[in-house]
């Protein structure tokens, strides 16, 4: 098994670079001091970092899983503005003992996540380090719509999510307990499956506020409520629970956990948005509550939820 | 001394964010899923990472020094395309034992480097880690000029640099030997001083190829020669040696080292460019040689230089 250190930077880049996706927006790609991209509309930009043993574990995730997740959580941030992602810059820091297989897998995961959306990796940096760090900056462009922030929900809006929740947390529970009872849930944790494009669709349907669910519905909906200065009231009976979360909870003998995971589990990365009325919510979205006048908090079934949500490995 | 871990992420961000510079290009700043920027022309983007004990040492550098260097080496990459830098995304990973003072210093250094150029920090990410990692993605825009790559030098061009060389290496030599003989050189190592804007100026004067000198003239000029498919012939007598490098070399009793540092020392980040004729080289630039037909290599005084250039701490 060849390692990062044995191969050397130039040889590694020569293997890594051809596996990366490219984008039609690219005017000049990797290899010079900077890349050059065309931007239609305004530039939308976001950064997320994954650190070994904090955001992923090598005994659970392959390089491709880490690449997929690094890409997907950043694409979701761009989509959450109602913008179209176009390109990533990727920084990889890794110990010299890291298998080359991990690094090439990382490129494959980035490509698998990006290619269906026409997103390219246009540059980045590579360094030695004592643990693996993958920092991704995603860029996108607005296409004639205003960016949708978290701050513009209005009292009377309906609140909706673009996908079923709790799957990633159900996978995390299996891995952390060492009991693999449902492969789909494990996969949802290792490779989150937000529907990229749902955010743009919401923007085109008149969404007033939006974000992606990275830290769990309870924590993230409270953030949106605070940013918009109103209360979000969620009816838990209407929250879509992912079937894989339900199956996992039942197999673990704790069927009630499925709803708890859907409410407080993180890393699903589905869109959460508010719309001016139920009739404009796009197909495939689930209405889970409403925005009402109030002190900028979240209520679930009329009460403040106890669980503060996802805290990665803490 | 309060640490990163004691303070917690939210409190730290509340202290950190107000110290960061902002930019007129900002439509939406930090705090949402993504930032939004206006882009005039095409987007130019580059990423550089600094890893503790590989690119900097805490016994040498303050947080402000690290922030300055992280910003400046990225601004130089944008300038090296003949583009105008506008914004940074900054990722900080740090152990929970990191003093808050370091983190706030980092923000100050970023601001000091960026503010004179109207560059803002528009977003980023923060995470725990077992060592400090600062990853910066810089964005800029072309202003009616084509991006200047490394690949378009032509035989017959003159080769020039935008500043005196060897200062950073002279500072590094002092620190690594534990003999502080010249404060200016040490400062040039801790806080590189490329003239941001020299790249745009070169582009407006018709530069054919350009890059910034991060790994030393010997190594970087060879890269430009290879990318352009011609030979670069440098006359060492014309290479501008920084006075602080000369003073350091003399104080250390090895006056000949000054030229060696100017030729092979890294991290000065001054621009290296080729121009179609001597008459168009902007004021303040130094002509050091010419591009000639040949096999894509560098010659110094007619010979291939032995020293392969800067290798950080290796």
From TrEMBL, chains A, B:
<keyword id="KW-0460">Magnesium</keyword>
<feature type="binding site">
    <location>
        <position position="55"/>
    </location>
    <ligand>
        <name>substrate</name>
    </ligand>
</feature>
<feature type="binding site">
    <location>
        <position position="77"/>
    </location>
    <ligand>
        <name>Mg(2+) 2</name>
    </ligand>
</feature>
<keyword id="KW-0547">Nucleotide-binding</keyword>
<feature type="binding site">
    <location>
        <position position="150"/>
    </location>
    <ligand>
        <name>ATP</name>
    </ligand>
</feature>
<keyword id="KW-0418">Kinase</keyword>
<feature type="binding site">
    <location>
        <position position="77"/>
    </location>
    <ligand>
        <name>Mg(2+) 4</name>
    </ligand>
</feature>
<comment type="similarity">
    <text>Belongs to the thiamine-monophosphate kinase family.</text>
</comment>
<dbReference type="InterPro" id="IPR016188">
    <property type="entry name" value="PurM-like_N"/>
</dbReference>
<keyword id="KW-0067">ATP-binding</keyword>
<feature type="binding site">
    <location>
        <position position="33"/>
    </location>
    <ligand>
        <name>Mg(2+) 3</name>
    </ligand>
</feature>
<dbReference type="Pfam" id="PF00586">
    <property type="entry name" value="AIRS"/>
</dbReference>
<feature type="binding site">
    <location>
        <position position="212"/>
    </location>
    <ligand>
        <name>Mg(2+) 3</name>
    </ligand>
</feature>
<feature type="binding site">
    <location>
        <position position="48"/>
    </location>
    <ligand>
        <name>Mg(2+) 2</name>
    </ligand>
</feature>
<feature type="binding site">
    <location>
        <position position="214"/>
    </location>
    <ligand>
        <name>ATP</name>
    </ligand>
</feature>
<dbReference type="Pfam" id="PF02769">
    <property type="entry name" value="AIRS_C"/>
</dbReference>
<comment type="pathway">
    <text>Cofactor biosynthesis; thiamine diphosphate biosynthesis; thiamine diphosphate from thiamine phosphate: step 1/1.</text>
</comment>
<feature type="binding site">
    <location>
        <begin position="124"/>
        <end position="125"/>
    </location>
    <ligand>
        <name>ATP</name>
    </ligand>
</feature>
<feature type="binding site">
    <location>
        <position position="33"/>
    </location>
    <ligand>
        <name>Mg(2+) 4</name>
    </ligand>
</feature>
<keyword id="KW-0784">Thiamine biosynthesis</keyword>
<feature type="binding site">
    <location>
        <position position="48"/>
    </location>
    <ligand>
        <name>Mg(2+) 1</name>
    </ligand>
</feature>
<keyword id="KW-0479">Metal-binding</keyword>
<feature type="domain" description="PurM-like N-terminal">
    <location>
        <begin position="31"/>
        <end position="141"/>
    </location>
</feature>
<feature type="domain" description="PurM-like C-terminal">
    <location>
        <begin position="155"/>
        <end position="295"/>
    </location>
</feature>
<comment type="function">
    <text>Catalyzes the ATP-dependent phosphorylation of thiamine-monophosphate (TMP) to form thiamine-pyrophosphate (TPP), the active form of vitamin B1.</text>
</comment>
<feature type="binding site">
    <location>
        <position position="267"/>
    </location>
    <ligand>
        <name>substrate</name>
    </ligand>
</feature>
<feature type="binding site">
    <location>
        <position position="46"/>
    </location>
    <ligand>
        <name>Mg(2+) 4</name>
    </ligand>
</feature>
<dbReference type="GO" id="GO:0009030">
    <property type="term" value="F:thiamine-phosphate kinase activity"/>
</dbReference>
<keyword id="KW-0808">Transferase</keyword>
<dbReference type="InterPro" id="IPR010918">
    <property type="entry name" value="PurM-like_C_dom"/>
</dbReference>
<protein>
    <recommendedName>
        <fullName>Thiamine-monophosphate kinase</fullName>
        <ecNumber>2.7.4.16</ecNumber>
    </recommendedName>
</protein>
<dbReference type="InterPro" id="IPR036921">
    <property type="entry name" value="PurM-like_N_sf"/>
</dbReference>
<feature type="binding site">
    <location>
        <position position="47"/>
    </location>
    <ligand>
        <name>Mg(2+) 1</name>
    </ligand>
</feature>
<feature type="binding site">
    <location>
        <position position="77"/>
    </location>
    <ligand>
        <name>Mg(2+) 3</name>
    </ligand>
</feature>
<dbReference type="InterPro" id="IPR006283">
    <property type="entry name" value="ThiL-like"/>
</dbReference>
<feature type="binding site">
    <location>
        <position position="310"/>
    </location>
    <ligand>
        <name>substrate</name>
    </ligand>
</feature>
<dbReference type="InterPro" id="IPR036676">
    <property type="entry name" value="PurM-like_C_sf"/>
</dbReference>
<feature type="binding site">
    <location>
        <position position="215"/>
    </location>
    <ligand>
        <name>Mg(2+) 5</name>
    </ligand>
</feature>
<feature type="binding site">
    <location>
        <position position="125"/>
    </location>
    <ligand>
        <name>Mg(2+) 1</name>
    </ligand>
</feature>
């Amino acid at each position: 098994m060849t390692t990062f250190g044995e191969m050397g930077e130039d040889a590694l880049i020569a293997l890594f670079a051809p596996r990366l996706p490219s984008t039609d927006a690219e005017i000049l790609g990797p290899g010079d001091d900077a890349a050059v991209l065309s931007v239609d509309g305004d530039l939308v930009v976001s950064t997320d970092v994954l650190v070994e043993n904090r955001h992923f574990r090598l005994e659970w995730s392959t390089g491709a899983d880490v690449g997929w997740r690094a890409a997907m959580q950043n694409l979701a941030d761009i989509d959450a503005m109602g913008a179209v992602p176009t390109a990533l810059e990727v920084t990889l820091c890794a110990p010299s003992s890291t298998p080359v297989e991990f690094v090439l897998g990382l490129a494959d995961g980035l490509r698998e996540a990006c290619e269906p959306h026409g997103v390219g990796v246009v540059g980045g940096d590579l360094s030695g380090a004592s643990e693996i760090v993958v920092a991704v900056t995603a860029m996108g462009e607005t296409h004639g719509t205003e960016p949708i922030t978290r701050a513009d929900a209005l009292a009377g809006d309906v609140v909706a999510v673009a996908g079923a929740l709790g799957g990633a947390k159900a996978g995390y529970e299996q891995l952390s307990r060492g009991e693999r009872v449902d492969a789909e849930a494990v996969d949802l944790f290792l490779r989150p499956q937000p529907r990229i494009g749902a955010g743009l669709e919401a923007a085109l349907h008149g969404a007033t506020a939006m974000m992606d669910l990275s830290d769990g519905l309870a924590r993230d909906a409270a953030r949106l409520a605070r940013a918009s200065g109103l209360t979000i009231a969620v009816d838990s009976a209407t929250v879509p629970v992912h079937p894989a979360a339900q199956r996992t909870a039942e197999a673990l003998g704790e069927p009630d956990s499925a709803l708890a995971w859907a409410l407080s589990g993180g890393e699903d990365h589905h869109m959460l948005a508010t719309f001016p009325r139920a009739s404009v919510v796009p197909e495939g979205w689930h209405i889970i509550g409403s925005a009402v006048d109030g002190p900028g908090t979240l209520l679930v079934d009329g009460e403040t939820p106890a669980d503060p949500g996802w805290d990665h490995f803490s």
